[in-house]
């Protein structure tokens, strides 16, 4: 029998850790969301690698990254999302598509092995979905003249989009580009309700 798999919905709470220095983008996003960033962390069968879109790390796009969440535990709120292996595979495949991350021949873990020991290194391809900085203004400012880009995404939007791919029955009603990190976290917590 296979153990229950969980995807971890990770939300960055910059104010929960007094040692964290707020950035300009934290302040800007803080107009609407006390949570500043969203990551999806895959189960151990995927090496525990995380996926999101970010302006940090120099990539400005969808990317995979190993993150040491235990280094600053106060900064991360976590919700466990129970998934089947098939759901997890669908979500991971969609994340790979968005990050333009091509799996090499061999097993998934063989492909990811170089990443698993390197915290802080980002993995993405040249055609990774770009980060939607302009669209981010659509939720931080409430200016109706600014619209999200149809082919770019910000962190909570991209995480909801990939989760929706494997959890279509649970998230069919969700429109990813209508959510910022806080509303995305609250939606996932309501829907799955198992905090880590």
Would you give an account of this structure?
- The protein has 196 residues and is an alpha+beta fold.
- The protein has one domain.
- 34% of the residues lie in helices and 18% in strands.
- It has a 7-stranded antiparallel β-sheet with strand order 6-4-3-2-1-5-7, with helices on one face.
- Strand 2 (37-41) and strand 3 (50-54) form a beta hairpin.
- Helix 2 crosses helix 5.
Tally the helices: what do you get? 7
Taking all Cα atoms into account, the compactness measure Rg is 16 Å
Tell me, briefly, the overall form. Answer: globular
The first-to-last residue Cα distance is 23 Å
Largest sheet: 7 strands, antiparallel
Structural class by sheet pairing and helices = alpha+beta
How many structurally independent domains? Answer: 1
Tell me roughly what share of residues is in helical segments: 25-40%
- β-strand amount: 15-25%
Biggest sheet strand line-up:
6-4-3-2-1-5-7
Find the count of extended strands (DSSP E, 2+ residues): 7
Please tell me the overall pLDDT.
Answer: 81
- Could you name the ranges where pLDDT drops below 50 across 5 or more consecutive residues? none
Task: Write down the secondary-structure element order.
Answer: EHEEEEHHEHHHHE
SSE topology sketch:
Layout: E1 5-12, H1 24-29, E2 37-41, E3 50-54, E4 61-65, E5 76-83, H2 85-99, H3 108-116, E6 122-123, H4 133-140, H5 155-166, H6 168-171, H7 181-192, E7 194-195
Antiparallel strand pairs: 1-2, 1-5, 2-3, 3-4, 4-6, 5-7
Helix pairs in contact: 2-5
């Amino acid at each position: 029998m296979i153990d229950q798999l969980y995807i971890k919905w990770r939300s960055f709470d910059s104010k929960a850790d007094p040692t964290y220095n707020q950035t300009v983008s934290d302040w800007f996003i803080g107009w609407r969301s006390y949570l500043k960033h969203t990551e999806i962390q895959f189960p151990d069968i995927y090496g525990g690698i995380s996926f999101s879109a970010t302006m940090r790390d120099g990539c400005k796009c969808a990317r995979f990254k190993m993150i040491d969440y235990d280094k600053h535990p106060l900064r991360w709120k976590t919700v466990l999302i129970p998934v089947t292996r098939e759901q997890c595979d669908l979500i991971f495949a969609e994340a790979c598509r968005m990050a333009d991350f091509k799996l090499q021949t061999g097993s998934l873990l063989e492909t990811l092995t170089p990443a698993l020991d390197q915290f802080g290194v980002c993995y993405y391809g040249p055609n990774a979905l770009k980060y939607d900085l302009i669209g981010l203004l659509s939720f931080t400012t409430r200016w109706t003249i600014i619209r999200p880009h149809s082919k770019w995404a910000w962190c909570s939007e991209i995480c909801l989009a990939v989760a929706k791919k494997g959890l279509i029955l649970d998230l069919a009603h969700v429109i990813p580009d209508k959510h910022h990190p806080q509303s995305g976290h609250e939606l996932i917590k309501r829907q799955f309700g198992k905090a880590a």
